[in-house]
Amino acid sequence: MSLVIGTPREGAEVKRFAAINALIGHLMVYDERRFDYQLLALCTMRDALEHPLPCATDRIQHQRSMCSIPAAIALVEVAGQLIAQWDCEFSGESGGAPGSGGPLWKGKHGFCKERWQLWHKRLVELSIEDWLQQELRKDARKAAEVMLNLGQRVS
Description:
The protein has helices at 8-30, 38-49, 59-85, 113-127, 134-154; strands at residues 88-89, 110-111. The protein is mostly helical.
């Protein structure tokens, strides 16, 4: 199994989504108050790292996760220092839970040290999955190292 992105168009869309998340990360680093995209960052990280892979039973979620992995890596590389420090919860005003987790996360509905640790663990796991493309494994390993270094500084 490869990255599940079969056509050049799909590959380009994945790259665009990662680039958008890198831009979002840069905007947050530049001016976190004006460009508050915490919930968007959380959704990207959740889709990428809080679902078991490969998950053939839910093809739509699997494709969403596979598209989000490069985007989550971009967020960590660009705005990881900010994200590692965030500690907040998102409550749904209409009864929803916008900060809730995927199947691998049952904790706080927002950012916290424990969720950061789960994401780090998942990136480490992805970095050794032989069914992922080598470049994506390498990027996941690099992002996991960034997270480890940032987590040690924040703790």
